[in-house]
Amino acid sequence: MHTYKMTPVETPVPAAQPDAAAQPLSFSEQVIAREKQYVLQNYGRYPLVLARGRGAWVYDPDGNRYLDLLSGIGVNALGHAHPRLLRVLREQAGLMIHISNLYYHEYQGRLAERLARVSGLQRSFFCNSGTEAMEAAIKMARAHGQAVHPDKYELVALENSFHGRSIGALSVTGQPKYQKPFGPLLPGVRFVPMHDVAALEAAVNERTAGILMEPVQGEGGVYPVPPAMVRKARELADRHDALLIFDEIQCGVGRLGTWFAFQGIDPVVMPDVLASAKPVGCGIPIGFVLCNERAARTIPAGMHGTTFGGGPLATRVALEFMDVLEELLPQVRARGDYFRHKLETLKSRYSFIRDVRVHGLMIGVELDRPGKDLVAGCMKEGLLINCTHDVVLRLLPPYIISESEIDKAARILNRVFKRWGTA
Ligand SMILES: *Cc1c(COP(=O)(O)O)cnc(C)c1O
To answer: How confident is the model over 156-214, as pLDDT tens digits?
Structure first.
């Protein structure tokens, strides 16, 4: 008879050190210690454990509260525990969460219809994340190019961009620090500086299948692409029969106070393909691609797909969000303006603030030095923000943020800035 032994884990859990003087670990410390041992150490997390949220506030296990101005990196657009989302989540979870894309359900088509109406782009493809949406967009460009000529596969993207972590999306991400460990990436990708219309013109030719850009770069530091650059991209895409692809994963779906970022460009520049994700499901994973019929024709039945994408729970929640957003849109712009006013005041007070960039509720505060300590300082004072590109404080508040919450955030920022400025 065989006796089976369980394979031991690589690093056995150390027995608690019987050190009489040592304090027992708090709940939060236990949570962090367990993750450090068993979870892939690919994130540099802040030492904060969160247990629940309500509105724009989140709470740690001890009941301390934090004003959440990052909202899960722009995902929790309606904050936490929004009653209208809870209602549809509870009801739909009791009916059906998932069925796969082998069958129809009511909500995928309804959401697609809704998105078409507000964007002017006729068709949707649903997936589960931003990088997957970019992957679908890149495949559309490739398929479009291959239908013309085998050499038409090049992609033109912007320097300092961020499009996601899958190999395709990473290949068009213009930041060597993300790309370097994973080469070789997709061939035929060219990067041009965001302000260089001539470089864009030189990079696009008849071998170009797609031109990609974030209308407002997010991870790169909250930089809007100059309208002249966007217009030139449209013109070049038309001249050379390429698809123009906007990555609105962070800046889209209400973040700027319009349904989509491209609608804020004057005059509006329509893409052929638009990818979005972050706020759409308010925390339920969902991403999508919108496209015109010209781009949609590149993907006939069987050519692309996903198991989870467009399920009844995610699409129904997104549809409810679209309803709520319709009422909230004017407020997003107004709250952004209110925030800008507060941040401009801080800028006039502290010389280490180089620039304040406020686009709806997409906010960057550029410093003259790394801002990591500031983020930690704010956390101690009960304010969650983020720092991107070392020197840009990034705020992506929930769309439901109130003026008094913005006042509160500004007071905390002022306190932390004051200490920092004299340090
Ligand atoms: C977050 C982000 C992505 C990647 O989305 P994931 O959901 O993390 O895969 C791509 N592009 C932009 C502009 C983003 O902000």
So the answer is: 999 999 999 999 999 999 999 999 999 999 999 999 999 999 999 999 999 999 999 99
Q: State the residue for tokens 């706020």.
A: 279
Q: Among candidates 127, 111, 253, which has minimal Cα distance to 138?
A: 127
Alpha-helical regions (H) of 39-155: 71-74, 83-95, 106-119, 130-148
How far apart are the two ends of the chain, measured CA to CA in Å? 71
**What pTM value is reported for the model?**
0.94
- Centre of ligand 1 from the C-alpha of residue 372, in Å: 21
Residue with token string 């997936």: 127
Q: Which of these, 363, 388, 357, lies nearest to 375 by C-alpha position?
A: 388
Class of 84-325 per CATH? alpha beta
Q: Which atom of ligand 1 is nearest to the CA of 165?
A: 9
Considering only the C-alpha atoms of the chain, give the largest distance between any 2 of them, rounded to a whole number of Å.
Answer: 80
Residue 251 Cβ contacting ligand 1 at under 6 Å: no
User: Which pLDDT score, from 0 to 100, does residue 9 have?
Assistant: 57
CATH class belonging to 27-81+328-422 = alpha beta
- List, in order, residues 6 or more apart from 409 with CB less than 8 Å away: 67, 69, 342, 383, 395, 397
Determine whether the shortest distance from the Cβ of 168 to ligand 1 is under 6 A: no
User: CATH 3.90.1150.10 occupies which residues in the chain?
Assistant: 27-81+328-422
Whether residue 42 contacts residue 65, with contact meaning beta carbons closer than 8 Å, is answered with: no
Tokens 């069925």 belong to: 99
The whole-angstrom separation of Cα 243 and Cα 152 is 12
Residue-wise pLDDT for 206-237, tens only, equals 999 999 999 999 999 999 999 999 999 999 99
CATH 3.40.640.10-classified regions of the chain: 84-325
Q: How far is it, in rounded angstroms, from Cα 80 to Cα 76?
A: 7
366 three-class SS: strand
Tell me the pLDDT of the chain averaged across its residues: 95
Which atom of ligand 1 is nearest to 250's Cα? Answer: 15
pLDDT (tens digit per residue) in 271-315: 999 999 999 999 999 999 999 999 999 999 999 999 999 999 999
Dig out the tokens for 132 from the structure. Answer: 């997957």
From the CB of residue 116, how many other CB atoms can be counted at a distance below 10 Å? 14
Tell me how far apart the alpha carbons of residues 317 and 26 are, in angstroms, rounded to a whole number.
36
**Predicted local distance difference test score (pLDDT) of residue 1:** 45
Q: Is 154 in the pocket of ligand 1 (CB under 6 A)?
A: no
- How far apart are the CA of 231 and the centre of ligand 1, in A? 23
